[in-house]
Amino acid sequence: MSEVNHRFANFVSRHPLWTATGIVALGAAGGFSVAVVADGKLSEVMLTASTTLIFVAFIGGVVKLLLDDIQRRRERRNEQSRFVAALLADLKSVYDRVERCRILVAAHRSALTYGNEMRELVDSAVQLRNVVRALDSGTSDISDPWLSRIRMCVKSMEEYLRQLLDEFTTHYKRIADRERICEAALAARIREEAASLDPAMAIPENSAWLEIVALPKLKEFREVDSRQGPGIICADRCERAPFDYWWSFVRPLDLASWILRAELRGLRGGRWPNTPEDLLQVLFRLECERA
């Protein structure tokens, strides 16, 4: 008996609408049956009650279905809003980490800082890969054209970091070995001249930093603020933009962030804004690169 009760309770929990329909149907059938066999006032009352039961149940069921649908849509929008907000937070986290690396490498002028900060960029590259994986998972409700554009932006950012990290992987060991030699030479010079306390003591040249300065991709990365501004890409023909921090990382980040913020605005009931002209230029460049 307990097994039967368990199965019935399981059916009710899985199919509440069918259960309610069955109860209403049984009640209405019983009422109509009584109305048929009864006479006079009782027949009229049972007929009215059964008819009322059917209409109330029908209207109540329709209202419940509509309310459930509204609730599901609201939950879906909330879930999508959280998804988009998380993507925005990931992109901001990557940008903050990359900017920190750029500033500290230029300020500290040491192979140690260069090594530590480049290792931080590995985490940024992994985070960008996770963003692409989230976009590819099929759980996003972002429309396909805009989803493809976000993906292009993130892949451009990832490729830029990969080039920096490839350069780091190729040259860092030699640079780190040279810095250890420079540090040992400096320590020896300090010991030799410690007794004289000569303020004009010559400090050996940091040849390790000179090698770091010569790295072409890192040089562009460090000196991005010294530019007069980004170049302009002609909108009437496809031409390759410079592969640099501005065009390959910062501006794709701006475009991806703008799309995600516009999506978030739409989810909250706002209108999708017009794409700014400068971001259309970035989009044009990325589509040219993909073609």
Q: What tags apply to this protein structure?
A:
single chain, 291 residues, mainly alpha, 9 helices, 0% strand
Describe this entry's structure for a reader.
This protein is elongated. The termini are far apart. It has helices at residues 2-14, 16-37, 40-108, 111-136, 144-193, 207-214, 216-222, 245-267, 277-290. Helix 5 packs across helix 8 (245-267). It has one domain (38-290). The protein has 291 residues and is an all-alpha fold. The chain is built from nine helices and no strands.
- C-alpha termini separation: 69 Å
Query: Which consecutive residue ranges, at least 5 long each, have pLDDT under 50?
Result: 232-236
Major pleated sheet: none
- Structural domain tally: 1
Order of helices and strands: HHHHHHHHH
Helix content bin: over 70%
Overall geometric form: elongated
Determine the oligomeric state from the structure. Answer: single chain
Q: Count the helices. How many?
A: 9
Give the C-alpha Rg. 34 Å
Helix/strand class: mainly alpha
Strand content: under 5%
Number of strands: 0
Compute the average pLDDT.
Answer: 75
Q: Would you kindly provide a brief summary of this structure?
A:
By secondary structure, the protein is mainly α.
Structural topology:
Layout: H1 2-14, H2 16-37, H3 40-108, H4 111-136, H5 144-193, H6 207-214, H7 216-222, H8 245-267, H9 277-290
